[in-house]
Design brief:
10 strands, mainly beta, single chain, DUF6265
Length: 153
């Protein structure tokens, strides 16, 4: 009986380590990113991948005030990854990964009108191209966020 318990514990620890290794592929996303436009300054900050997730926050600052913000997480889920967004800190929206290859990640939720797709692509040494796309008022809409690595506040 002790042998079965030991094997079960070993298998459980192997699963935890496998999840941690998988989420580690998002280490290129960790840090602070941003860009400036006429509509304000956009910032994204991502934690280092730990355990089975990486946590982020984004905001748009204009005229000295935070005008928009969002909490985000990328978590391991069913052999892939989920991107979980809480826009304005409200209802959670979940997107499933369709691409996660070491410098690029694409997440989709066809049931969410806008955005229905979120993508990130790391361009070495210090650029991050983010995009959200979907349908808004019957029109296809795409917003690009061409960010550069910045010092963290």
């Amino acid at each position: 009986m002790h042998r079965i318990t030991a094997i079960a514990a070993l298998l459980a620890s192997t699963v935890v380590h496998a999840e941690a290794a998988r989420v580690d592929q998002f280490k290129w996303l960790a840090g602070c990113w941003g860009f400036d436009t006429d509509n304000g300054r956009y910032e994204e900050m991502w934690s280092a991948p730990t355990g089975n997730n990486i946590v982020g926050v984004s905001r748009r600052i204009a005229d000295g005030f935070t005008r928009e913000f969002e909490f985000m997480r990328i978590v391991t889920s069913g052999g892939g990854f989920d991107y979980i967004a809480l826009p304005q800190g409200e209802n959670e929206v979940r997107f499933n990964s369709i691409v996660a290859d070491g410098t690029r990640a694409v997440f989709e939720n066809p049931d969410n009108a806008f955005p229905s797709r979120i993508s990130y692509e790391f361009v070495p040494p210090d650029a991050l191209n983010a995009r959200i796309e979907g349908q808004s008022n019957g029109q296809t809409m795409r917003l690009n966020f061409p960010m550069k690595r910045r010092p963290c506040p």
